[in-house]
Amino acid sequence: MVSSKTVGEGALLKAILQEAATEVMVFDADTLQIVQANPSAANNLQYPLAALQKLTPLDVLAPEDKPSFNTLLALLQSGKKRRITLHAHCCRRDGSRYPVEARLSCATHRGQPVFICIADDISQREASRQALAHSASDLRAIVAHIPGMAYQIMRKHDSQPVLRYASEQSVQLLGIDATALCAEPERFFKLIVEDDRADYLAKFTETGGGHMSFNWEGRIRMDAWEDVKWVSIRVGQRKVAGNLVWDGIMLNVTQSKQAEAEIRHSRAQLSALAAHVDKVKEQERIHLAREVHDDLGGNLTAIKIVLAWLKDNLPPDAHRLIQRTDYLDKVVDHTFDAAHRIASNLRPAALDLGIVPAIKWQLQRFGRNTNIAYRFSATDEPIPLDPDVAIAVFRIVQEALTNVAKHARATQVRLKLVRNQDSLLVTLSDNGTGIQPVRRDEGKPAFGILGMHERAAALGGELTVLPARRRGTRISLRVPLPAPSPSCQQNDNINMLKQSAENDSRGCR
Asked: How many of the other CB atoms lie within 10 Å of CB of 459?
């Protein structure tokens, strides 16, 4: 007689099997015909429960898995195994497949030996595994093509950082195998050139001890290869499960550093060449100005003297000859003015008096030629400038005023000279339309501004061209000054230059 407790347990077990997502099948040990199956097995295999009970496990297994299944059943039947796990693929009614992890065991049902198969659909697990495998494969392929070494550092809680991973490119970059580098990360520090170690340690200290959590560029020496390389380290930090992780890459930037050095060297050579050309050009201008002043001025003076004697010795009734003589005298005067203008353009005599008188003279000419109002302020203190420096500053101001006259459409210009302790600051601003940015693919290059920058760089100074606060353009030039000399000697030199300039002016006229 079956107790009510036994009946209750059977009903409970049946209810559990009915609701379980795991596939459960019971099949006869002799015929292998499926005796019982829960709804999950019928739904996954897409068979009605009645139709499923007419099949055997071999009917729903993939052909390649049948031999293994038979071998495992033989082990269960012989008693050598009590439970067996099998990974196989089941075939649905529509022909599609899905992977399962099945557990087989022996039991007795109504006095007959049966096999119980409990299987889990592992499609999602298998898809995740394959995706992870593909991701790892893709990551390895990406890392393998990086022109440098990828690495990862981890620090758990308060423990010391550990080099967790280094790519195989460590051999090409550092000459150290990845495994050996992970075991002894300090080997990298020993490769750093001694002059660069202080900078590396300073960066290291800024991170508060987080090893290589910074961006750094420096040199490493490969004694075995007799080679010095530039490397660039770039690191990003993140947290994983409470642990700090640094993902980094170390690149060989030797070629780019060499290219930068060559570019700097070429620029320095071009700047030196430009400065030399300007110096030669200014020397030639001085030479031409002197030639015009001395030779042409002397010849014109002689012609004027002869014309005056000729006019005084002509008969009073030679009216036409007197008119011709007066005309030639006026031509000589005009030629004097032209010679004086040409000489001033080549090299203003006001430069001999100092940079302040020279710029003031230039502003006066600018105002007369353009009708643009100007305001000028300068320090009363003498400004000690080397003649070449003074000419360069004058030319920069001259070019800036030319740009205002050509492009600014301004009505007012302000020019200010300020002498600081170790530099001269020249500031020119206008109220014009302002400087407009020029795209690289359109318009002509601004050679005027470029020349101003080159002149300033050759002086060891700095020139900036920016929009003014309200409107217009503001040009600032800062030039270093030499060490101050005794003021009395400087005043004597200025007085001598003034006297020389006055004598030259009288001689030219």
From this structure: 22
Tell me the sheet residues that pair with 27: 34, 115
Instruction: Name, in order, each residue with C-beta under 8 angstroms of 48's C-beta and a sequence gap of 6 or more.
Output: 42
* CATH code of the domain made up of 349-508: 3.30.565.10
**Domain segments of the chain as ranges:** 19-126, 146-252, 254-347, 349-508
- 261, two tokens: 């050095």
Judging by DSSP bridges, how do beta strands 112-121 and 23-28 pair with one another? antiparallel
Q: Is there a shared CATH topology between the 19-126 domain and the 146-252 domain?
A: yes
pLDDT per position in the chain (509 positions), as tens? Answer: 445 444 455 566 667 777 778 999 999 988 999 988 999 999 999 999 889 888 999 999 999 999 999 998 888 888 888 899 999 999 999 999 999 999 999 888 777 888 999 999 988 888 888 877 777 677 777 777 777 898 888 888 777 788 888 988 888 889 899 999 999 988 988 899 999 988 888 876 666 555 556 788 999 998 877 889 999 988 888 888 888 888 888 999 998 888 888 988 888 888 788 777 777 877 787 778 777 777 888 888 888 898 889 888 888 888 888 888 889 889 988 888 888 788 777 778 788 888 999 999 999 989 999 999 999 999 887 888 888 888 889 989 999 999 999 888 899 999 999 998 889 999 999 998 887 655 544 555 567 888 888 888 888 899 999 888 778 899 999 999 887 655 444 454 444 444 444 444 443 33
The CA distance from 507 to 400, in Å, is: 32
Nearest by Cα to 453 from 466, 463, 438, 467: 463
Helices (H), 232-318: 254-291, 297-313
Q: Tell me the residue type at 112.
A: Q
For the segment(s) 146-252, the CATH number from 3.30.420.40, 1.10.10.10, 3.30.450.20, 2.40.50.140 is: 3.30.450.20
- CB 314, CB 321: distance < 8 Å: yes
Instruction: Look up the CATH number of domain 19-126.
Output: 3.30.450.20
Quickly tell me which residue has 């290869």 as its tokens.
225
| Global model pTM greater than 0.70 | no
* Four-residue CA torsion sign, 156, 158, 159, 162: positive
> Which phi and psi angles does 437 have, rounded to 5°?
-65, 140
Contact status, residue 432 vs residue 473, Cβ threshold 8 Å: yes
